[in-house]
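Hi, here's the filled form for the chain we discussed.

Project: internal
Contact: R.S.
Residues: 108
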Amino acid sequence: MNKAVTIDGGVTEEQIAQWKAQHRKVTRIDVVDGEETHIGYFKRPSMETMTAVSKVSKTDEMRSAQVLFDGCWLGGSPVIKTDAVLFTAAMTQLNKAFTSAMSSLKNL
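And the returned structure, exactly as it came back:
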């Protein structure tokens, strides 16, 4: 019987606390691949990252996803960065994280 393995790049609770202090919000994404769980940690994108994503997305959608991923990546399993299937699964969740904030409009 295979044993489940978690790969998180050696990230510690102290490192997560430092990231939270520096970036305010940190998102953890778990990607399960068979018996392996790969964990990645991400910050919210900066305006510079969003500008770069917008510019690149006009000509290469996959490259724009890579720019967004790299601009938000804090640490975790390095396999998420190199395995296309894990990368795509992480990007699906990362995109959800970016639409989690709610806003409203009031005419005054």
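Let me know if anything looks off before we file it.
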